[in-house]
Amino acid sequence: MYNGAIGLLKHNRVTTVQQSARFPCTGRQMERRVRTVLRLLPPLAGAPVAVERVPLLCDRRGPVHGAAFLRERRITLSCTSSEFPRIFVHELFHFIWLRAGNEARRSYEKILMAERRAGARGELGWSAEWRKRALSVAAVRARSRRWREYCCESFCDTASWLYSGLTEHPEFTLAARFRRLRRAWFATFAARGLSI
After folding, report:
1. Cβ-contact 196, 44 below 8 angstroms
2. Nearest-angstrom CA–CA distance, 102 and 137
3. Cα 91 → chain centroid
4. Neighbours of 39 (CB within 10 A)
5. Is 178 helix (H, G, I), strand (E, B) or coil?
6. Quick count: other Cβ atoms within 10 Å of Cβ 112?
7. Which domains does the chain carry?
8. Which end of the chain is more exposed for a tag (fewer CB within 10 A), N or C?
9. Could you tell me the CA-to-CA distances from 133 to 32, 43, 123, 127 in Å, in that order?
10. What is the pLDDT of residues 71-92, one digit of tens each?
């Protein structure tokens, strides 16, 4: 068993180094942070995604902690080191959502629909929570753009909760019973491999 554990450690170290090559970073500190988070993630496949720090990052609503530029294959971050794992995983999973395919996205939507029918409150990140609060019954029924954006943000926030290494955060407000269902869904989804 001891030799097997050493082999597994060597394999994980090699795998993490190979995975981190997919994420060219601006600076050594950013490289270390990315490498640390990659150890917590299932294996990833796909072309490189650049990671950079941008001070005072904003979108049309104001300041944000991160952004994913899918066509440019680039993630920009403007967050503290303690928030880095959560924000990086969230932005990374925007690439995975894009490549998940309609069947997987619809399957995840069914989880969220079941939560709505059960009256679930809260979310696993503010990005999803404010969108959830703004949804109307008509928007959900029509699978409107607002509904689909909420689904995407919920997916990314849930991944962040699962893979960032954080067990508690003020933005993790979804009840435990709903978290368990999402964890089970992600276990099945990630078992197929994750494409960025």
Report:
1. yes
2. 22
3. 6
4. 14
5. helix
6. 22
7. 2-99 (3.30.2010), 102-195 (no CATH)
8. N
9. 36, 33, 10, 11
10. 999 999 998 999 999 999 999 9
Q: How many CA atoms lie within 13 A of 16 on its CB side?
A: 17
For residue range 14-43, list pLDDT tens digits in order.
455 556 678 988 889 999 999 999 999 999
According to DSSP, the β-strands at 74-77 and 58-59 are unpaired
Per-residue DSSP letters for 48-99?
--EEEE-TT-EETTEE-SEEEETTTTEEEE---TTTHHHHHHHHHHHHHHHH
SS3 content of the chain, % helix, strand, coil (to 5): 55, 10, 35
Contact present, 151 and 112 (Cβ < 8 Å)? yes
Q: Give kind and range of the element (H or E) at residue 19.
A: helix 2-20
